[in-house]
Amino acid sequence: MRARISRRSFLHGSALTTAAATSAAAAIAGAAAAAVSGRPVTEQGREAVRLGPEAVRISLTINGSARPVSVEPRTTLAEALRDALGLTGTKIACDRGACSACTVWLDGQPICSCMVLAIEIGARHVTTIEGLASAAGLHPVQTAFIEHDALQCGFCTPGMLMSCAALLERMPAPDAQDVERAISGHLCRCGCYPHVVAATLEAAAVRRKRS
Amino acid sequence: MTTPSPQRTETFPCGLGADGLGEVTRQIPADEPPPLPPNSQLEVIGKPIARHNGRAKVTGAIRFTVDVTLPGLLHGRILRSAMPHAIIRSIDTSLAARHPGVRALVLVARPGDALSATVRYVGAPVAALAAESAAAAEEALRLIRVQYDPLPFVVELDRARAPSAPLVHDSVSVPRGHASGFPAPPDLPLHGNVRGPATLQRGDSAQGFAQADVVLEGEYRTQVQTHCCLEPHAIVADWGSEGLTVYISTQFTSGVRHELAEAFGLPLSRVRVVVDGMGGGFGSKSMLGNYGRLAVVLSRQAQAPVRIALDRQEEQIDSGNRPATWQRLRIGARNDGSLTAIALRSYGTAGVALGAGVGNVADALYRCPNVDTAQYDVFINAGPGCAMRGPGNVPGAWGMEQAIDELAERLVLDPLLLRDRIDASPVRREERRIGAERVDWRRRHAPGADAGVVKRGLGMAQSLWGANVQINAACEVRALRDGSVEVLSSVQDIGTGVGTVLAQVVAEVLGLRPEAITVRIGDTEFPAGPPSYGSRTTASITPPARTAAWQVLQSLLREAALALEVAPDALMAREGRIIVRGEPSRGMAFRDATALLRTDCVSAVASRSDDYGGFRRRMGDAAIAQQDLGGVQFAAVAVDTETGIVRVERVVAVQDCGRPLNPRQIESQVHGGVLMGLSFALFEERIIDQQTGRMVNPNLEQYRLAGCRETPQIEVVLLENYQGRSATDAYGIAEPSNIATAPAIANAVYNAIGVRVRSLPLTPGAILGALGKLRAGA
Ligand code: FES
Ligand code: FES
Fold it and tell me: Do A180 and B59 touch (CB under 8 A)?
């Protein structure tokens, strides 16, 4: 559509300039040395690295293992996970930060993976829905989601689970309002919120009992 | 002529609730199983069994259509009209065609061809292409140059009704069917943009109004709501020499297969339609759709698989919507409340499409001898509407259920008492009683009686929905030699959990745990299942599942009877064993019985028979059961009279769906229905700019949906309603649970503030306006 300006089109065709002084960019600077085609300077006067528009090779740490991947600078983390790495458990529903379906963890913090570029990740650890269960079995939130039927179509579910599991990491004994706050950015058209809250509270109780 | 199939007589439990059930005798086909006792006597049916694909959904393993990838997959993208109404003079695709990534390109609008070259809404498909990457497709799309000759347009219901309004359609382009695929009433007059009326007359309404002691009149309005499925409409089309395989996010695999076969001149046997995970439809994914057709065309041209997945903006402007409506209701009643006449006149707009009627509720919810309805469709330059959860009855109940409350007030009758007098349904009567008790209805205060800034109110409203059934619905059950069991049908699980209830029904018959049943659905390689719309899936597919399982069991019992040296009818299946009735120690494990099979597998395919005792109405593959589905909802609200913000604090939803098969999944669906209704009542609204014809909120942030913080306490009370109508006696719940919510909230808001708001949504501005608190010109 002609009048549409998306993040994609905005970045398209123009090389991406990143401040080399930030930790994320520093991490990719080495990997992307071949793509450096000039020495632009950031607003702060620091030396910047210029990437793209063609694909650059980076390495992402996902669910505990290093995953080399080739992405264009405009590629979001969500796209890199789904399209380049085949980790399709992460869902995209709005692609602009409005629904939280694409939630993953970045160093343990839930973020919208459609709102960060893959090349910004650097050395930080990404955890996706595929990495939520451990060798020991499902995460207690996953088990509780099944038991409480906290999902219907299941499209919002991976993102919802990542936020609920992250909540339990930082708050072992949440109340209903805490859960509501944690998922307040998530949209579920099937209307699973009551069961999501109940499931998360139960998962918290189960976890407390276990530890 | 087919000879009528042999029948036998059976006695079924009948009535409301688990206790005090009566009996009813029915003729049933001889090859169908005996009556199922009430849920309290069953092992698996009626229990809150966990979803069969729950694990796949919580681990991210389940494959949605947007996750499907095939070797050599191309990415399709649709160029859409930037104009609300125009003739396309030229389309220059030469630059796009030369883009190195592009592999196929088609024009939807063909300049020079009057019909296809006219675009009638912003977002109408103009051309489509497939490229080697999504980015390349996007780039190439931008290289297409389109020249438009703009035409005058109209995007608003009232303006489109004016005789001088720009014309959306000409006599050739006027659609003949509803966008949802249903036929529209034929040969209705078209004046300007207004088509109709579709009329229904019963009795003599003039006489009815003459007999009335009280005549109530009201005008009610509803806005356009969009479906907002979290998974977008998506398809992967793979045109190959052996035929066409299509992965599509659909509510009806079998229907899409028929559409494809017809559109592309293929035999059904060469068309396969598959869906596993399906991220919500709510009516908008009932058909192939223009995007689906384009993906197939591109795949055929490129000789490679093509994916088209709409982005959120495309979802909002061209994937269907609930039509906007305006209705005027006149209701005549005697002083005792009995209705003497109902007259309804309605105008609705489904954009460039048809299907905005609202009349079913006015016609059928209450007893009234004289009914006169006239319903008009109005065309506007906006994306086509389509069915959306409770189509017609959601706006219909918005009007009627407020009008009945208004009438009750005029007659100085309690709204529940008035409904007791005019509603013939014993099911809703019981639902009203239960709900009233739950919310302590007697303590409801007079309208606006609450002191203070935040005023609380209590209201209720009723739902009406036909118990729909698809006759063309089949299911196979297989028992394999190692004791494993499969249930197979093309029916799709759109989030309602139909796979789970299929496993439950089969497990109950075979005496197994539901986890032991392998569910294979969502693929037209299996027997053709019903659509997942019209709240008909469970009603259509679980009876044949039980019948097929029962027939498989009969084969097994015959083998086991030989080995155990008893008569087959002395045996039964229970807890993983085949045992002699009354002698549980005598028998064999289920898997030992299957090991006796002469072949690797014993299988039965059953299809949906008519409801026992017959249907009320039959239309092709579909039918409507004798009894309706009810549902009564109570809402408690708090209205801040300074900010105008309405907060729904509590909803009590008392619902029925025949025999409930899985109460937990039903509860989930009712939560969804209530929340979609609440969201419709308070937040959602498609806004189109009058100057440009563009939707200004085609996203999920300015198009507001209720989130968890807007979620009230929702209590679901589920009635068991046994009627002995099929092998499972189960019916649907999705739509009935969505119909009463908005009017229940509106009636509660009225009870809170003492002023009635008859237009949706109930935004802070609407509330303050009703309270006379908006400054003039503000
Ligand atoms: S897809 Fe990322 S927030 Fe919606
Ligand atoms: S389960 Fe369907 S959107 Fe949440």
Answer: no
Residue A80 half-sphere exposure toward CB, CA atoms < 13 A: 31
- B310 Cβ under 8 Å from any chain A Cβ: no
User: Could you tell me if residue B46 is inside a domain?
Assistant: no
Q: Is pLDDT of A30 > 90? A: no
Task: Answer yes or no: do B326 and B190 share one domain.
Answer: yes
- Judged against a pLDDT cut of 80, whether residue A49 lies above it is answered with no
The answer to whether residue A66 neighbours chain B at the CB level (below 8 Å) is: no
> Which residues in chain B show pLDDT less than 50?
1, 778
Ligand 1 binding pocket includes A95 (Cβ within 6 Å): yes
Query: Per-residue pLDDT tens for B541-567?
Result: 999 999 999 999 999 999 999 999 999
Using a CB–CB cutoff of 8 Å, tell me whether B396 touches chain A. no
Residues B757 and B657 in one domain: yes
Question: Same domain for B619 and B734?
Answer: no
Report yes or no on B556 lying in a domain. yes
Establish whether residue A183 lines the binding site of ligand 2, counting it when its CB lies within 6 angstroms of any ligand atom. no
Q: Identify the domain containing residue B275 by its residue range.
A: 65-151+233-309
Pairwise CA distance, residues A170 & B169, whole Å: 59
Q: Examine the domain organization and report whether B674 and B731 are in the same domain.
A: yes
Interfacial A residues in 13-42 facing B (CB < 8 Å): none
Structure-token match 């079913």, residue found:
B360
Distance CA B76, CA B561 (A): 59
**Tally of CA atoms within 13 A in the half-sphere of B745 that contains its CB:** 31
Which residue out of B58, B62, B228, B230 has the highest number of ligand 2 atoms within 8 Å of its CB and is therefore the one to mutate?
A: B230
What CATH number is given to the structural domain containing B384?
A: 3.30.365.10
Is residue B78 situated within a structural domain?
yes
Closest to B719 (Cα-Cα) out of B623, B653, B646? B653
A-chain residues within 8 Å CB-CB of B714?
A: 194
Q: Is the pLDDT of residue A39 over 60?
A: no
For residue B495, give the DSSP letter: S
Closest ligand 2 atom to B495 CA: 2
Distances (CA, A) of B510 to B52, B399, B484, B551: 17, 48, 11, 10
Render pLDDT for B156-203 as a digit per residue (tens, 0 to 9): 999 999 999 999 998 889 998 887 666 777 889 999 999 999 999 999
Q: How many residues does chain B have?
A: 778
pLDDT over 60 at A21, yes or no:
no
ipTM of this complex? 0.96
| Domain contains B58 | no
Question: What distance in angstroms lies between residue A187's CA and the mean position of ligand 1's atoms?
Answer: 9
